[in-house]
């Protein structure tokens, strides 16, 4: 995996397998805090035909289930909520950890996935999701 940084080419230390292992460890550490949101996550997932594990994984990775947030905001006050909605692109609905907010962010996710699927219909589901 090669990335360009400041005009220089460097080898990335990130690999898909190593990244997946890191995500798994983070999610395992966050599982206790995720239980608080189990019902809203499952309800949103059912309504949008998403895997609840996908929503939970995003919540874990984006905000560590709220652990990294200050009253719902990231440190730079640019992103809001458990799933870290960018305030330049969207006006947040609901309280940062509400079902309404999880639904808003998950709906945006579904729309984005559908756009990728429309542009790349021959890609596998895994490729489209990434």
TrEMBL record:
Q: GO terms for molecular function, please?
A: lysozyme activity
Q: Which domain of life is it from?
A: Eukaryota
Q: Which top class of enzyme applies to this chain?
A: hydrolase
Protein name as annotated: Lysozyme g
Q: Does the keyword Manganese apply?
A: no
| Record-listed E.C. numbers | 3.2.1.17
According to its UniProt entry, one GO biological process term is: defense response to Gram-positive bacterium
The terms describing its cellular component in GO are:
extracellular region
Q: Which SUPFAM superfamilies match?
A: Lysozyme-like (SSF53955)
Q: Which UniProt keywords apply?
A: Antimicrobial, Bacteriolytic enzyme, Disulfide bond, Glycosidase, Hydrolase, Secreted
Does this entry carry the keyword Glycoprotein? no
Into which family does the record put it?
Answer: Belongs to the glycosyl hydrolase 23 family.
- Check the record and name the InterPro entries matching this protein: Glyco_hydro_23 (IPR002152), Lysozyme-like_dom_sf (IPR023346)
List the top taxonomic levels of the source: Eukaryota, Metazoa, Chordata, Craniata, Vertebrata
Q: Where in the cell is it found?
A: Secreted
Catalytic activity line of the entry: Hydrolysis of (1->4)-beta-linkages between N-acetylmuramic acid and N-acetyl-D-glucosamine residues in a peptidoglycan and between N-acetyl-D-glucosamine residues in chitodextrins
């Amino acid at each position: 995996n090669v990335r360009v940084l400041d005009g220089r080419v460097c080898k990335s230390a990130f690999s898909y397998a190593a990244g997946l292992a890191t995500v798994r460890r983070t999610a395992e550490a966050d599982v206790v805090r995720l239980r608080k949101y189990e019902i809203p996550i499952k309800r949103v997932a059912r309504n949008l035909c998403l895997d609840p594990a996908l929503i939970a994984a995003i919540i874990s990775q984006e905000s560590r289930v709220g652990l990294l947030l200050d009253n719902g905001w990231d440190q730079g006050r640019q992103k809001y909520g458990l799933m870290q909605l960018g305030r330049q692109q969207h006006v947040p609905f609901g309280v940062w950890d509400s079902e309404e907010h999880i639904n808003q962010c998950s709906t945006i996710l579904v729309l984005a996935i559908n756009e990728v699927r429309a542009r790349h219909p021959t890609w596998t589901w895994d490729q489209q999701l990434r």
